[in-house]
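Posted in: Protein Modeling Q&A

I'm a second-year student putting together a small comparison for a lab meeting, and my supervisor asked me to include a predicted structure for Mammalian cell entry related domain protein. I've never done this before, so apologies if this is the wrong subforum. The sequence is pasted below exactly as I got it from our records. If anyone can share the structure token output, I'd also love a short note on what stands out.
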Amino acid sequence: MPDHETLPDLPEATSLAKRRTRLSPVWIIPIIAALLGGWIVVQKILAEGPTIEISFSSAEGLEAGKTTVKYNGVDVGTVESLKVAADRQRINARVQMAPETRDWLLEDTSFWVVRPRIAGGSITGLGTLLSGSYVGMAIGKSDSQARSFTARDVPPVVAGGTPGRFFRLKAATLGSLDYGTPIYFRRIQVGQVASYSLDQDGRELTVRIFVNAPYDQFVKPETRFWQASGLDFSLSANGLNVQTESLASLLIGGLAFDTPDLNVQSEAAAAETSFELFADQAVAMKAPERGATQYVLYFDESVRGLSAGAPVTLLGLPIGEVVSVRLDAGDRKKLQVRARVLVAAYPQRFLDVLADPQELTGGKVLTPALRKSIIEQLVARGLRAQLRTGNLLTGQLYVALDYASNPASARIDWLSEPPVFPVMKGGLTDIEAKLTSILGKLERLPIDAIGSELKQSLAALGATLKNVDTLVKRWDGELTPELSATLVEARRSLAAAEGAFAAAGKTMAPGSTTLEDLRATLTEVKRAAQSMRGLTDYLERHPEALIRGKSEEGQ
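Accepted answer (user: helix_wrangler)
Welcome! Here is the predicted structure, written out as tokens:
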């Protein structure tokens, strides 16, 4: 091989570093263990469910770690801890809920403590006497979730999902109502009172009630609600009438409702519709009055027993009612205090009691002018207002429009507002006034003067008889037989008159037995009148004495 021949370039040898993997097989086991641990933690968290906080007014019956939360009898949570709130007014409970309750915890979900409770005639929570108290739960309907809740002081009366509707009643007083108080329709229990609260202005109460289906369809916009507590009895000419919804309502109270005219095809009232709660059925079912005309009655007698709502009758048939009873001083200079009674007369009631209204109105519409003309004619014929006793047991009075016997001329004062209607004294008051007038006239009789004058007349008559007797003796034998017979007859007549006057003189003479008897009789009549007046006053104050007799205190 020649020396100048070069060898081809050979690649140079280089050292290559060995490539290592980023994850060593040694870390596989710890990573798998970590993943398993995380999965276990997640599963544990998902298995435990959410944790919530419930605020209670009292922790009575609650115990951390033991008290459970139940929904329809199924355990869905446990109270883990109890602590006093920062304001020291309430107790905060930390509750661990079950996983399935995650979607149940809404803003209007409610909780309460279940204990033995008596309300509305029913007893609930008797099972807790052995198992202990627990927290009840009702799922709400809100779209927003929550984790903090305030427990109810009382459990809900109506369970969630119960078919029916809630309504609201406005009442002046609560009466005997309570949670769970029954509600009746035609004496069938159809619902109960759910809750009640005092309005912010403090003037009325709002009672929330629930009427079960299908009875809720009978609650119409025209429906009337009333208190059905206790007994409703009335004493009339037909006897004693007693009404009550049920024995339960007699003991624990209740509500009832009805619609005045069910034939009216109206839709059922919407949920949460507000109604007025009346005191009794008679007031609730009374037809609404329209076009009432008010009058003022002035009485110079006692109106004790007359109150607002008392009936106003025309010849015994109701046509109105008393609106108010007040006192009126009248003329300030005379200062004549008298009773002022404001009454309301309803034209429709007046027409309802007429057998033939067309005959009175002449087929015309009863306009205010025609009504005024009819009333003026009735007053001109003697129609007056009078106080009468409606019930001797209670002493209640009412206003009666009736015709007076020999009435004095009177007219309605249309210039006053309201018009003033003429009145006459009540029957008992009129009798007392007449007795007092008779006694006054008898006391004013000059009995002593009449006796003295009679005595003088008897003395003059005696002298006259003596003169006649002297003339008869003087002219005896000279007079004609006819004249003599006439004188004898005159003498006999005068003697008889003298005897009569003498007897009358003895009778009317001061100190005589007859005069004393007459005075004693007048005194007894006066005492009888006073006793009658005292008896009337006592019966007005104690009408029950007609049945039970006079009390020991009264005796």
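A couple of things worth pointing out for your meeting: The radius of gyration is 50 Å. The chain has a mean pLDDT of 75.
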